[in-house]
Amino acid sequence: MLSSILVPLVPVILCIGIGYLTARVGWVRATAVPDLSNIVFLVLTPALLFRTMGHVRLQELDFQPVLLYFSAAALLFGLTLAFSRFSTAAAARALAHTFSNLVMIGAPLMGLVYGPQGLVTLFTLVSLHSLVLLTAATMVFELAEAREQQRTGSAAPRPMAHTVWQAVRNSIVHPVPLPILAGLLFAQTGWQLPEMLDRPLQVLAAALGPMALLLVGIALAHTRIGNHWRGALRVAVIKNLALPATLGTLAWALGLSGPAIAVMFTAAAMPVGANVLLFTQRYGVMQEEVSSAIALSTALALITLPVVLVLAQFFMH
User: Which residues cross the membrane (predicted)?
Assistant: First the structure.
């Protein structure tokens, strides 16, 4: 049983390793990473999301596991703020502890381990992941920044309502949630895509897994950890281990189990997502530490994910 659980990890590790070596020998330069990211996020990801959700009826979706995920994230987010001085730096750490890389690493891994139904469960979470976490984080960041500005007597804070609305809009008008919603709407019509359209989408969707994993390795090779490795490592350990532990404890306490819970447990163990870095850049705080944490969390996931996949089997029944 152990081998059947861990075998799907082999292509994940190999693709990341090949991407890393490709960058290290100079075949892919750092300047190419943004363009490769555009291919993954703007072309391949929407194809997989739309094609997967384009066969799902709304009554088939189960939001209970998603609620469990957000409950665990909210608990860990709150604990991070409670044990820190309320500031934008604490908000950045709290977001890094709870925001997962669900597409570039999560989608290929879930497809290999849990199959098409696992992807449907994952994409149900993905459809709300950025909207819920980034909107909540925006409010915390804005409150913390307003407090800091009030304390230092610097410029007046931005109107929170406008900032929150921007976060909500940007979380929906985005190449990840939009194709999920479009696919769900299409599925409710009962129509079928013509083969001449469905076949190219199938080819593009199949390319997402290897391309995204190669890009992860390439990005790792071009990331410099710097002097903030201790704080970054602490963030990586909490993200990779504390979030799935919190979710698993809640699931056990509530008596929840089944494949969807296993998917959420595994999703919680994904490394820190790149959107956290965008927030630190926007608020001018913790940029180097979060950038290092993303790299360390991704590298650490190669060790922690096998353990999580084994533990996830306890939720399968």
Answer: 6-23, 35-54, 66-83, 95-114, 120-141, 172-191, 203-221, 233-254, 260-280, 292-316
